[in-house]
């Protein structure tokens, strides 16, 4: 957890008012219900800057990613964890990072996050980051896996399946691959958009789509699944599997056509899936987090978080967290960081969320709208208890 305590403003004028709420939020053993591993190796400046942006383009020579909300947050909040003064220069920060080495940087920043349980999605560039077992070894905290549906399908294709056998092979592989997993995830927003036909395709449709995809993959030498029929098939097989199913929603790298990543486009699927009782978790959602809050309010099978948006809005993340609390029942909101790579992102995901929750809830208490006990209970629900219930994690060890 943070090495610095946060004391919210005392709007009621009583000395120390809000300090107990701040302490309570600070000590929640967060469940990061959607995260990726920390970097396994060192990152020189150019690579580090490319890892603290969602852009997949090189950083132009005339600018630095440190001149951004996330960059300023790294220099403000991560520098003290590495033994530096807040607001240090990027050159000093990166030199200290290199001096300590990746293992020590990971150890310090992950420990300082105060995250008590990691649900690690392993489907993206897994050879560059720590897997769940290594995340658990570094932190001393449990780390379970979330399996990406598209990665399972692409592995099946790489193993040489034919079109007629694809559906059965994928189903078998999914059950085996997710045998010990806590959840599943789809990146349909990246591969097609959320404006797909909501119902499951027929077996004949799947076979025809698999034939098109496998032929195209053989010609191109890559097995990137982006056929909307196949993506629907993967999603419905994921729903049949019965594990909580995560959807990337909203903001992300340029692969996302943002206007087709609004969660309201999932309404048809949500309603068709509702009788099955499988939790559908909308990840990140910025700038559509208010839309996600509406869906979480009206559909019992929908949950959401604002994970990625918190890190990248930095000093403005208080507003994002405040907006996430407007419509949805508090039992339907979860915490995540969506950190991938630099452990700074894991640390900041937790620190900025704690700071935002403390400021927002302290305001409610100071205004007499909420009691402090209610504020602590809601922060604990969102920070840990909701995820423990949804993913069947049990009580904190």
From TrEMBL:
It comes from the Bacteria. InterPro entries: Amidohydro-rel, Metal_Hydrolase. Residues 187-393 form the Amidohydrolase-related domain. GO terms for molecular function: hydrolase activity. Gene3D superfamilies: Metal-dependent hydrolases (3.20.20.140). PANTHER family: AMIDOHYDROLASE 2 FAMILY PROTEIN, NODULIN 6. This is Amidohydrolase-related domain-containing protein.
